[in-house]
Specification:
224 residues; mainly alpha
Length: 224
């Protein structure tokens, strides 16, 4: 794995984030709240990417902007799931969000201060996998199966599930691979960016469906 490959994948996912931001807000007054939150989440992600690219950081400290953006994205996605689940699990989601944020700050401040925040990544992945399964269950109960593809949140949730399921195993062994076996950190970073790109492409299907629903409101699923 070369630094050139790493930077190429990094730039591709940053560019896709910018595209998603544009697609999420135009036209602004007709977009669903879930769609706008997706745009905000990837805007935060893009800011983290720009900070990593332009700030004069070296070594592992380059991940600091990423840690901040990841925490903000976690909060945004919690809000997203709360809205998608129609506030039915508001107390649980809020409690999980607050507990995770506090634990993530403590972990970054005292335990994995200069290391890869693998504990945060593992916890975040497990939480969102559970949220995704819960959302899919509610969606199957509330909507006919043949209309699921018309629901933008279905694609957003799928993208979140793919990313977190794909990176969970790697996150579990990140510290061991990098710190103990001295494996190439570029492999970890490149794989993560590839999973982000897959997440972005799936999310863009949801954005396309939302634009399609705007043009044909009469064919929207009844639950919306």
């Amino acid at each position: 794995m070369t630094i050139e490959s790493f930077l190429l994948v990094f730039k591709i996912q940053s560019t896709l984030s910018a595209v998603i931001i544009l697609l999420s807000f135009v036209p602004f007054n007709k977009r669903q709240m879930e769609v706008r939150l997706i745009g905000v989440a990837f805007f935060v992600s893009l800011l983290g990417d720009l900070a990593v690219y332009f700030l004069p950081l070296r070594g592992k400290d380059v991940n600091i902007p990423g840690h901040v953006s990841s925490l903000l994205m976690f909060i945004i996605f919690c809000i997203l799931f709360n809205i998608a689940l129609k506030n039915k699990y508001r107390t649980i989601i809020s409690g999980v969000c607050i507990a995770f944020c506090l634990a993530a700050i403590v972990n970054h401040s005292f335990f994995q201060k200069k290391d890869i925040n693998s504990y945060n990544q593992i916890a975040s992945a497990i939480i969102f996998i559970v949220f995704c399964i819960l959302y899919f269950y509610r969606l199957l109960v509330d909507l006919p199966a043949q209309q699921l593809h018309r629901v933008p949140m279905f694609w957003f949730c799928t993208s979140i599930l793919i990313f977190n399921a794909g990176t969970l195993f790697l996150s579990v062994f990140t510290t061991y691979l990098v710190e103990v076996l001295h494996n190439d950190f570029l492999f970890y970073g490149t794989f993560t960016f590839i999973m982000i790109i897959i997440q972005q492409l799936v999310a863009m299907i949801g954005l396309w469906q939302d634009l399609r629903n705007i043009k044909s409101p009469s064919s929207l699923p009844s639950a919306q």
